[in-house]
Amino acid sequence: MPTLKRLGALSLSLVLALTAFTGCGTKGDNSSSSGSTSQAETMDLSSVTDPFLATAGLSGDTVVATAGDAKITADNLLYWLAATVDGTAQYYSMMGMSVSDLPWDEKMEDGSTMAESFLNNALQTAALYALVPVIAQQEGLSISDEANETFQKAMDTFSQQAGSQEMMDHVLWSSALTQDLYTRMYQAGDLNTQLMNRYYGDGAPDAPKDEDILAYVSDELQIAYKAKHILLKTVDTNKPIKDEDGKATGKYEPLDDATVAQKKATAEDILAQLQAADDKEALFDELMKEYSEDTDSSGNVNSPDGYEAKSGQMVAAFEEAALALQPGQISGIVESTYGYHIILRLPIQAADYREKYVSYLMSQRQQSWLEQFPVETNDEFKKIDPAAFYTQLTALRTAVQAEVDAMQAENSGDSSSSSSGSSSGSSSGSSSAS
Fold first, then answer.
1. What are the domain boundaries of the chain?
2. Which residue of 171, 234, 293, 405 could cross-link 21, Cys pair, CB 3.0 to 4.6 Å?
């Protein structure tokens, strides 16, 4: 269940808020509408004291569900509902569509509507955030002083950047957060980490063994091998070849013969250097950084630590050559549809995957909690309309963004005036001196 992984990424909450504050957050033109829900106007922030009451009609501390002894409050649920819809909205935006295109009432594979699916997914994550403190207390765990200190420093910095407590509150609102909710979420994250260390940390009864980690890498991650390469392209990957229907064929326009010959000579020289080197892996990294054309838009080498490849993931020539090597071995020159490769097979070491495996084990345990303490909703839960909530949240975000823009414009104006005054004073001083 993907939502379970969110417990390991609590810092995203503050990142979202800070992003909104810097003017890069959700703008008002991303409003949504569905059925009878009309697009909301910009909200009057002076009338808002509880962002959840203003957007969903429920105060943040309203209990909407339970999971065993854990109470799930509206603020917790609505934060995750907003995050869930935001993720889909971002995908729609990438596809050139707006949030208003969301088919809230469309049936999903399990028979629920999209709106119900959003709400149910959010409910499962909210349940975990409610359960963790209860389970941690049963284990005799409490918030660490270090976590409290780190959190307070972050909030102090945020408050200074915002310029006032009120502005900080408003920016948090735009991410469906309040200071109280964010504090509880952060604390749940710290307790979750403590629980994970108690269950799976060094010396714990269930601390993972290397053979279990390697089995996980093979069976769950399905990683067949790990390798890095130096690529010298013999094609122009910016010019894909298309078929008569305009669809990409997976091939690219070849470079001219002279360039290809030069690339082959360079590859041979690189290979000769590697074969003569005492520390082949160290030199490989140097030459990869210098020559490899498998780079990102900034010119940096892609996956400098190597590719973790599943069977069939890479082009056949690359995979066959990589699998023929032993860890630590370097291939000859391998030609694929992309060009000339020199491949270094890397070992798959348990230590490199321990953290990922522990997260996997923790997610399995978290799933067992949800099965042990099934979520039970109440009548307050039934009042939540995801489409209407998101429309109102967009209106609130629009208002906050306008407030942030106005503050930034004012600060920019003050800065310009100060600069102008300083310049004027300097000029005046120069005239007087002359």
1. 2-208+356-412, 213-350
2. 171
